[in-house]
Amino acid sequence: MRHFKIMIGIVAMVLLFSCDSGTNKIPVDKLFPVSLESNGELMYINTEGKIVINPQFEEASLFTNGLALVRLSGDDKYGFINEEGNFVIQPIYKEATEFREGLAWVVEKGKAPACIDKEGYVMFTLTQAEQVHQFSEGLAAFSIDTDEDELWGFVNKKGEVQIEPQFYDPIFFREGLCPVMNEDEKYGFIEKEGQLVINYLFEKAYPFNQKHAIVSDSEKNGVIGSDGIYTINPIYERLYNDLDLISFRNNEGKIGWMRHNGDIAIKPQFDESLLFGSAELAPVALGDKWGYINRDGKFEINPQFKHATPFFGSIAFYSNDEYLFNRYGLVDIEGKVIVEPQFYFDLGVMFSRLYYYIGMDIDEYYSHVKSDYFNIDTIVNSIDINNHPKKLSLIMTFNEIKEKFNLKESDFSKESHRAKYITSTNVSKDAMINFGVAGSAFNAKQVTKSNGWWSYTDTEYYFNGEGKPSRFVYEIDLYNRGKGKSEMLTKAFVEKYGDPVSSYKDGEYEEFFFYDNIDLTIIKRRNSVELHVGEAPL
Q: Is 158 exposed, middle or buried (0-12, 13-18, 19+ CB in 10 A)?
């Protein structure tokens, strides 16, 4: 599904630039995913607006480390292409992140997050992880589920857990520090061994940038140094890192820039703005028109556009349409129009890397994956068709079963094809095994009755306590990550018991019959799998 989200202005999407792990430059993009129609197939254009990779994608990211994450139209799998548009890593993944620091996280259906290199080689797999974020400064945040919470830790590039899961809501490491939240929903900063170096004092905290970090206190924002002491007091409703500057809005609602010590660099005078980043120009708005200023606060490109983006190297995108999701063209740093507005793009995808650099919102495009790991082995190994629960066997009578499980006669079925489930066991967060007996526990007898006017024949049922079940039934109900994976589970059972004698399929319903060594039938449904041990079901 294409990521065209509702956004409250471009500002909410792209006020996010910073430096890249010790450099002062953001990688310059040369190719951009756009379409010629709203919700049309995506292609890649260069900085001259020329098509370099033809329209064919349902989703497409920017290029990072020379590769872009894409999903072909009509497909539901992700892969990676190079700048020539050729697949370097085939589209086989249910989820994937962009590459960071030469590595990406991928998830295949039914599997745990795996870390791959740029050739697609699996470096290691995090079976225990629920979610994993991209690497930053050699560490990636991952979460595990406990009985009560989702806790986060960090893994290094060797797959070793460097910081045990114990924190809430981490972002990522920058300049050796990472903001994390404690159980009281307060933020502090840890270093790379997991030690808390700045106490849990803040309502929100963001990664460090040039030895300073933006933090929130009682809904106001300020700036601290690496010692945790404020260099700019928390008095601002809006603060954003902008490399060596801080963008702010004053009490009159005007936007300007200041330095990390609070000195004004560009006086507040603009109604809206985006950021400089590593560019020499920043987009700003006066009224409903956007232009570009230099670092002295003077206009280099006069306000004339309805919408404008930060510069990607030497080009920026602009639009003169009224609405946010509309046609964009290209403009250069001198304000010369390179291409008239004709392209559509997803702002969230276009600016996804900016979220990475500043860390204002980790829940962004292609920055993390969720595990799809479905522990089939645990389920398969939980069932022993030669050793049933409570040592039940088909030679036991219904009376014996009734007494053993404290059941009533009415608990049993009158119909031989229905099972009475007598135990239920959660084998994982994704599956429950119900065990029961099948076969009619009642005898039918035809009797003649009269209502005073005429006679009629009726059927009465009598509990046959000395009768015996025809088979045992194991029903595996699948939910959470097990949902939709009945085929995978069925395949595992079939492999365990060998080649079936015969099989039958009708849509999503499928049966496998085993008679040579064991009287077993396996039935696959949409979100459940049944094992019938004994007579084949009717």
A: exposed
Q: What is the DSSP letter of 503?
A: E
Output the CA–CA distances (angstroms, integers) from residue 415 to 419, 441, 521, 524, in the order listed. 9, 8, 19, 21
**Three-class secondary structure of residue 429 per DSSP:** coil
Confidence of residue 22 (pLDDT cuts 50, 70, 90): very low
Mean pLDDT (the chain, rounded): 87
Question: Per DSSP, what are the bridge partners of residue 296?
Answer: none
Q: Distances in Å between the alpha carbon of 454 and those of 247, 447, 451?
A: 94, 14, 6
**CA pair distance 435, 419, nearest whole angstrom:** 9
Matching residue, tokens 């499928």: 510
**The length of the chain, given as a count of residues:** 538
Contact indicator for 309, 12 with CB cutoff of 8 Å: no
Residue that is written with structure tokens 């099972």 in the block: 419
From edge to edge, which strands make up the β-sheet containing 150-156? Answer: 161-167, 150-156, 139-145, 131-136, 368-370
Query: Could you tell me what percent of the chain has a pLDDT over 90?
Result: 63
Look up the pTM and report it.
Answer: 0.84
Residue with tokens 């697609």: 120
CA diameter of the chain: 106
Q: Look up residue 51 and give its two tokens.
A: 């098509």
Name residue 137's amino acid: E
3-state secondary structure string across 2-56 = CCCCCCCCCHHHHCCECCCCCCCCCCCCCCEEEECCCCCCEEEECCCCCEEEEEE
Distance CA 523, CA 322 (A): 57
DSSP state of 83: T
What are the backbone angles phi and psi of residue 277, rounded to the nearest 5°? 65, -130
**Ranges of H-type helices in 244-298:** none
- Structure token digits, residue 161: 């857990």
* Lookup result for tokens 């997050």: 113
- Residue 394's pLDDT band, with cuts at 50, 70 and 90, is confident
DSSP 453-473: S-EEEEEEEEE-TT---SEEE
